[in-house]
Design a protein that fits this description.
alpha/beta, Rossmann fold, Arc Repressor Mutant, subunit A, five-stranded antiparallel β-sheet, 39% helix
Length: 230
């Protein structure tokens, strides 16, 4: 419990039975919890320090995807999208606008708490090797969790940063999607390896021609440029 004490979780959920249930489980684990039943309240609550957001896709006043976009425009805080719709397109769009993970309702509260703890643990974990890596014009700094292209910062979502770091640190090794899911997310999505593909696509969009990630058809991904410790 000591590793979660004081961490602040924002639950954006209009169904009181769900939000109160999740809040109870999180508080048992030592988290501080704020509930926002509407999009407007979520944006207001986010002005305070928040360590992670669970965000319902369907809200009475605002689309959860739009809230995710607004949060991502100013913060890299981890976001877990909650959706009652079990359609692949909803999950993919959620990841494309900046969510780090998704959970489909109905869900097990213990599983959600485990995912929250996994994401927070990885976001704050110290880097065991180099603190900075360079590839072409890209430099990523693990301590600051910053990605720079020619000295200009590029905002990456937490899982985008972790995925880029894992590929750069392996310096040309071909990594399959299952490996990347395990290393970056800490668990598998019951075989849904498209999560990795969506995040690679987002990295390519944000980094443009400087993105060093190469697709190895039938195998996975690697970086196609030399990587150096900075």
């Amino acid at each position: 419990m000591s590793d979660t004490k004081g961490q602040h979780i924002l639950i954006v959920e209009d169904e009181e039975n769900i939000s109160s249930f999740v809040k109870l489980y999180l508080e048992r684990e030592g988290f501080n919890v704020t509930i926002a039943p509407t999009g407007a309240e979520a944006i207001g609550a986010f002005e305070e320090k928040v360590d992670l957001v669970t965000l319902d896709l369907m809200l009475p006043d605002m689309d959860g995807l739009e809230i995710c976009r607004q949060i991502r425009a100013k913060s890299t805080v981890p976001i877990i999208m909650l959706t009652a719709r079990d359609e692949d397109i909803d999950k993919i769009v959620g990841l494309e606008v900046g969510a780090d993970d998704y959970v489909t309702k109905p869900f097990n509260a213990r599983e959600l708490v485990a995912r929250i703890k996994s994401i927070l643990r990885r976001a704050s974990a110290p880097v065991k090797t180099s603190k900075r890596l360079e590839s072409g014009r890209i430099q990523i700094d693990a301590a600051r969790r910053e990605c720079l292209v020619d000295g200009e910062q590029v905002m990456l979502a937490p899982k985008e940063f972790d995925l880029l770091w894992e590929l750069l640190e392996r310096n040309g090794d071909v990594l399959d999607r299952e490996h990347l899911l395990e290393k970056v997310w800490g668990y598998t999505f019951a075989g849904d390896t498209r999560t990795v593909d969506v995040h690679v696509r987002q990295l390519r969009k944000k980094l443009g021609d400087d993105c060093p990630i190469v697709t190895v058809w039938g195998s996975g991904y690697k970086v196609g440029t030399e990587v150096h410790a900075a």
